[in-house]
Amino acid sequence: MPVITCIEDLKRIHERRAPRMFFDYCESGSWTEQTFRENVTDFDKIRLRQRVAVDMTGRSQKTQIIGQEATMPLALSPVGMTGMQHADGEILAARAAGKFGVPYTLSTMSICSIEDVAENTDKPFWFQLYTMKDMDYTKRLIERAKAAKCSALVITLDLQILGQRHKDLKNGLSAPPKLTPKSIANLATKWAWGLEMLQTKRRVFGNIVGHASGVTDTSSLSAWTAEQFDPALDWGKVAKLMEMWGGKVILKGILDVEDAKRAAELEPDAIIVSNHGGRQLDGALSSIRMLRPIVDAVGHKTDVHIDSGIRSGQDVLKALAMGAKAAHIGRAYIYGLGAMGEAGVTKALEVIQKELDTSMALCGRQTIDQIDPSVTLIPEDFEGRWHTT
Ligand code: HOC
């Protein structure tokens, strides 16, 4: 087994181990992938400020996220089809997160169902909700999440319709994979993945098949998704969903100051500055560029989190210094899961915590509440010079 020292190492193993269509699903953005790329490269433009001769003996990354204890200010994002990156992927990721002490968010578009994850883990997890035209089905998802004792509802707002991802269309993405000459040739080289997949029965979208009317298999699922996601979602409906849930709520997918103000009026426990990992509106600004303007506008009313582009503890530190209360990772833990299951997710979390700990120390900070804007050096025009007209 190679020595794993960074998230990039896990990504290389994931790429070798998982079928091409699922690795590509993880590693793609929409259209030209400009936003997908800039989510990462914009973090590189921000620098950290080295400080010396500060006592570093009492270091800790412990914090609270929406009032819940956490080992570090990090949560695992909902990722569709996680159970295709590795058999039982959602259960394994939830277990790793639970043992590590950070929140795990289960996607509506998961392979393992809400009940599967609840029965096979011992820590509460968060549930991410996509809103369907079929309001009865949406309500049932909320009821199922309540019955599973999910400790927060994450409502995604930026995917009423799907951004086009060229790789998924070219690969004929489906779960389980359709057997075509191309996919068979690729699957034949992925025997470890295949052996594990043969040992589980969880190979279809567990929250949907057998629960949503008219869906009995997954062969027509992308068409079903396109037909069923609610294009008419508006703030009034968001307020109703929050009321139906009645517990802690995070609104995900905010990238605009006006939307952030509107979201904050609903008094969620947090909002997530996000462009869906660059998978939706290609050409949108990176999440990290929009973080400070949104924190300045609504940070006094609600906690502001960030996702999209976080691949290291240094990225987490930069986001916290720029006002985020927590960072959410998607690809960074999926690489670990695809590489080596639960142990890989744990490895991803350990890598990020170590990077965060060391970088905080080298910036002269022992605890999360000592992280402030003076940790970072930001180019003058980082958020500026963008005009709507
Ligand atoms: C066939 C899956 O969040 C993503 C997910 C949701 C995709 C729904 C369709 O891929 O960005």
From TrEMBL:
Keywords: Flavoprotein, FMN, Oxidoreductase. The keyword Oxidoreductase applies. One of its GO terms (cellular component) is plasma membrane. The active site is at H276. Its cofactor is FMN. One of its GO terms (molecular function) is FMN binding. CDD domains: alpha_hydroxyacid_oxid_FMN (cd02809). FMN binds at residues 78-80, 107, 128, 130, 156, 252, 274, 307-311, 330-331. It comes from the Bacteria. Glyoxylate binds at Y25, R165, H276, R279. Belongs to the FMN-dependent alpha-hydroxy acid dehydrogenase family. This is L-lactate dehydrogenase (Cytochrome).
